[in-house]
Design a protein that fits this description.
It contains 16 helices and nine strands. Bound molecules: coproporphyrinogen III. It holds the Pfam family URO-D.
Length: about 350
């Protein structure tokens, strides 16, 4: 039984640094494309046997120390009453723009509305048989709100920011509702067998630090406080948070996800001893020659300087055009270079 990942989440010493990759189940793997070619992305998310199959692929192929269930952060938003499409990016037909829109949103009944997510987790726990732990996940309230209000990805996030500044009551009502949904969604995942939870706040870094404190932190804090997590560590990843890690820390997770814009050692000094970290190789390093990948892995491990409580990862998701053998090589380098002398 490989407990490296969970041990590192709790800051305990490990034999080698555990490693997994954000978005490790996905299009860079021909094995994923083979499954994906037979159905749409949403069908894949809603078919537990197939979702479990693609979640296990990177465990077998890359030799990573954790599996992450296959789904999307927007999966639980659809049963709130928002029709969702992937083209391939997410698109909501009717974005949220008014209090009436917010009032129409419902909080899903998880067992009835997203049974496939809970079933995927159960299948995965059975099939992984404790070989590696299983990570469940959700989007942070703010990142979910960004998609629900913009209706799709955005460059300037004008709609969500306009709502935040000029209709703060609508914004607050929306964030409250999403936070309640998220809490129930993640607790249902824990109950189904998820052994750690990662909260993805992909867009938290688009705000000024003071706005992050006002408009994002209260909701993420409430979410994390509301999780049944006696034995379930929470990884909080806010992309672009390098200049406000002190604020993000207040949300109360167990592990801070770091992107590559911060020096991992500097971030650890700032966060202090009680908090583990996850990260933070630039995902594009996986396009580099093997020796460059090795040197970059070594640099990140050196920045950590042997402290316990480090989970190696990329600073954001793996890109779809990365050669799988480079990802395999990265994992091998992490394990070899971090191995404690016997
Ligand atoms: O990490 C994993 O292996 C588990 C699966 C996973 C997916 N999405 C599958 C997916 C996870 C953890 C996510 C999280 C997610 N989804 C985030 C947060 C992480 C991040 O990358 O910032 C966000 C912002 C989304 C929303 C989303 N889903 C976008 C913007 C897109 C389109 C861009 C893209 O990467 O294609 C998706 C689609 C998506 N989610 C795919 C996969 C494998 C590609 C769909 C396909 O196969 O066609």
């Amino acid at each position: 039984m490989n407990t490296r990942f969970l041990d590192a989440c709790w800051g305990k010493p490990v034999d080698r640094t555990p490693v997994w990759l954000m978005r490790q189940a996905g299009r860079y793997l021909p094995e994923y494309m083979a499954v994906r070619s037979k159905c749409t992305f949403l069908e894949l998310c809603k078919t537990p046997e197939l979702a479990a199959e693609v979640s296990i692929q990177p465990v077998d192929i890359l030799g990573v120390d954790a599996a992450i269930m296959f789904s999307d952060i927007l999966t639980p938003v659809e049963p709130m009453g928002m029709k969702l499409d992937f083209v391939p990016g997410p698109v909501f037909e009717h974005p949220i723009r008014s209090m009436a829109d917010v009032d129409q949103l419902r909080i899903p009944e998880m067992e009835q509305d997203v049974p496939y997510v809970l079933e995927t987790i159960k299948i995965l726990r059975r099939e992984l048989a404790n070989k590696v732990p299983l990570i469940g996940f959700g989007g942070a309230p703010f990142t979910l709100a960004c998609y629900m209000v913009e209706g799709k990805g955005s460059k300037d996030f004008a709609q969500i920011k306009r709502m935040m500044y000029s209709a703060p009551d609508v914004y607050a009502a929306l964030m409250e509702k999403i936070t309640m949904m998220d809490m129930e969604y993640l607790n249902a995942q824990i109950k189904a067998g998820a052994q750690a939870i990662q909260i993805f706040d992909t867009w938290g870094g688009i705000l000024a630090p003071s706005d992050y404190e006002t408009y994002v932190l209260p909701y993420t804090t409430k979410l994390i406080n509301g999780l049944n997590r006696m034995e379930t560590p929470v990884i909080h990843f806010v992309k672009g948070a390098g200049a406000m890690l002190d604020s993000v820390k207040k949300a109360g997770g167990d592990v801070m996800g770091l992107d590559w814009h911060v020096n991992l050692g500097t971030a650890r000094d700032l966060l202090g001893q009680g908090m583990a970290v996850q990260g933070n190789l630039d995902p594009t390093v996986l396009y580099a020659p093997k020796e460059v990948i090795e040197a970059e892995v070594k640099r990140v491990l050196d920045e950590n300087a042997g402290r316990s409580g480090h989970i190696f990862n990329l600073g954001h998701g793996i890109l779809p055009t990365v050669p799988p053998e480079n990802a395999i090589h990265m994992v091998e380098c992490v394990h070899r270079l971090s191995q404690k002398a016997a």
